[in-house]
Amino acid sequence: MHTILLYEDNNNLRESICSLLAMTEEYKVLGAFGDCLLVEQQVQLHLPEVILMDIDMPGMNGIEAVKKIRVFNPTVQILMLTVFDDNEHVFLALSAGANGYLLKKSISDRLISSIEDVLQGGAPMTPAIARMVIENLQQPQRQQVKEDYKLTNREKEILQLLSRGNSFKMIAASLFLSIDTVRTHIKRVYDKLHVNSQIEAVSKAINEKIV
Q1: How confident is the model at residue 166 (pLDDT cuts 50, 70, 90)?
Q2: Which of the four CATH numbers 3.40.50.920, 1.10.10.10, 3.40.50.2300, 1.10.8.50 does domain 141-207 have?
Q3: Mean of the pLDDT values across residues 100-111?
Q4: For residue 87, what pLDDT is reported?
Q5: What is the enclosing helix (H) or strand (E) of 202?
Q6: Which one of 29, 93, 124, 125 is at 20 to 30 Å from 86 when CA atoms are compared?
Q7: Which of 208, 200, 24, 27 is nearest to 97 (CA)?
Q8: Concatenated DSSP letters for 55-122?
Q9: Which residues are CB-neighbours of 163 under 8 A, at least 6 positions away?
Q10: How is residue 26 annotated by DSSP?
């Protein structure tokens, strides 16, 4: 069973999300809070696998909360909840260390799949936001010897599909591989590129013309 912390200041929505997750046998909400003023203590106490974080909250917004969490916990999966799509706040949250985001209007039909996505190493977001993050991560081109990361042909193929926005399931289907095999390949790609996330891997691949 996967463990979750929820931060959402709308009482009705917070209760609805808890009820939705309670209907599954895979997820357990360890705590649901109306603000994130004590986020550091709460995350360190509960050690969740996933955090659902509203962006706009009283006292401290979700973006600042993500920054605080990332100081001491780089691995917890953080999914932002937002009313608006493709805005600067979403971009700032992802740049601060969030793993993806979900529109509140899509919670009823996409919450579970989005949580599954981040747990599998994915980064649920729209292409427009993904492009903003990638462009921000890209460094100015420098004249240097191109580094050989010793990626296999299969790893390059998977990285290329990843950079086109394909999900792990889509990659597995197109290459006739199991999702577990795809995950194994992607983990090796991360290790060889010295990155920790899908966004970093794609950014590096594009910036250094690996794919």
Answers
A1: confident
A2: 1.10.10.10
A3: 90
A4: 65
A5: helix 198-207
A6: 29
A7: 200
A8: SS-SSS-HHHHHHHHHHH-SSSEEEEEESSSS-HHHHHHHHHT--EEEEGGGHHHHHHHHHHHHHTT-
A9: 202, 205, 206, 211
A10: S
CA distances from 152 to 98, 161, 211 (A): 29, 14, 12
pLDDT grade, residue 96 (50/70/90)?
Answer: confident
Query: Residues 40-51: pLDDT tens digits?
Result: 999 999 999 999
Locate the domains of the chain by residue range.
2-135, 141-207
Is the pTM value of this prediction over 0.85?
no
Collapsed DSSP state (helix, strand, coil) of residue 4 = strand
70 vs 197: CA distance, rounded Å: 14
Which residues are within 8 A (CB) of 102 and not within 5 positions of it... i.e. 6 or more apart?
A: 79, 80, 81, 82, 110, 111, 114, 124
Using a 10 angstrom Cβ sphere, with 0-12 exposed, 13-18 middle and 19 or more buried, the burial of residue 170 is: middle
With tokens 């891997």, the residue in question is 201
Over residues 18-41, the mean pLDDT reads 95
Please write the tens of the pLDDT for every residue from 133-165: 777 666 554 444 467 889 999 999 999 888 777
